[in-house]
Write a structure and sequence with these properties.
Helices cover 44% and strands 15% of the residues. The protein is of the alpha/beta class. Strands 3-2-1-4 form a four-stranded mixed β-sheet, with helices on both faces. α2 links the parallel β1 (32-38) and β2 (67-73).
Length: 151
């Protein structure tokens, strides 16, 4: 029996703000945004972990190959942003993704995790809306909007 309870990575208010950002971003696009947060990124670098999670969460299966994931390992102070083939290329290749990562890093340096995740989700949402605008013929939400928590 454990006497210590792990403090949640994000409090309820933070979770609600991030999920609201995801819903808002996805409301303007056929694209998908997921956020995955955990304490540690053990045995691999953050990008490899993001790609692994992308596959585990079935994100390669979106109809238009336009899903993105924002991954953060809070205790290890690591993160990665990964986009599927179509959005990666259409958003501008490495230039867009490195720029988005640099902006997220500025928030994380100030321990503004929630603000950083919301800003990053909004930025990804704008890119998705530009290249994969909302289409009434595609009304389904292919992936859940809630934050996924690891260990």
């Amino acid at each position: 029996m454990s006497f210590w309870k792990k403090k949640p990575i994000l409090d309820q208010d933070s979770q609600q703000r991030i999920v609201a950002s995801i819903k808002e971003a996805e409301g303007k696009t056929t694209g998908e945004v997921r956020v995955f947060v955990e304490h540690r990124c053990s045995y691999m670098n953050a990008m490899d972990r993001a790609v692994e999670l992308f596959a585990q969460l079935g994100m390669f299966k979106t109809e238009r190959r336009n899903a993105t994931i924002v991954y953060i390992a809070v205790n290890d102070r690591q993160f990665a942003i990964f986009g599927d083939t179509a959005i990666y290329e259409k958003a501008g290749g490495p230039v867009f993704w490195e720029s988005a990562a640099a902006r997220l890093k500025e928030y994380l340096k100030k321990d503004q995790i929630t603000d950083g995740l919301c800003a990053c989700v909004n930025e990804l949402g704008k890119a998705l809306a530009t290249h994969f605008p909302y289409d009434p013929a595609v009304t389904k939400n292919e992936l859940p909007d809630e934050i996924v928590f690891g260990k």
